[in-house]
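Much of the work behind modern protein science is quiet bookkeeping, done one molecule at a time. The fold becomes a row of whole numbers, each drawn from a learned catalogue of backbone shapes. The protein below has been through that process, and both of its lines are reproduced in full.
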Amino acid sequence: MRLLHTMLRVGDLDRSIAFYTEVLGMRLLRRNDYPEGKFTLAFVGYQDEADGAVLELTHNWGVASYELGTAYGHIALEVPDAYAACDAIRARGGKVVREAGPMKHGTTVIAFVEDPDGYKVELIQAKS
């Protein structure tokens, strides 16, 4: 078994694709409309689906927003330098909600950004 993808429901698919590709640097891997079901799926990631897990962005036609709930946590991305990543994300219009710095009760450097639908993305600085 292997992890294939994580699905996020999004209110504006083009806005979400722009965030994940232009702000976080992922690639749009595929996008398919399903008119009979009134939804569109877009898959984004850093590598091909055959090589690693990706995100599935699901847009249900006519639905502009969702309640995130209290069970969902975040997506985590490893970055070489969390401080530089925050600066780059901010420069590209992204929203940093927790600046880079050591996590509480530890030494790992982390930061959090938020996507256009309010989903949190944790940036974890790679250990040197």
User: Anything to note?
Assistant: Residues 112 and 122 are 4 Å apart (CA to CA).
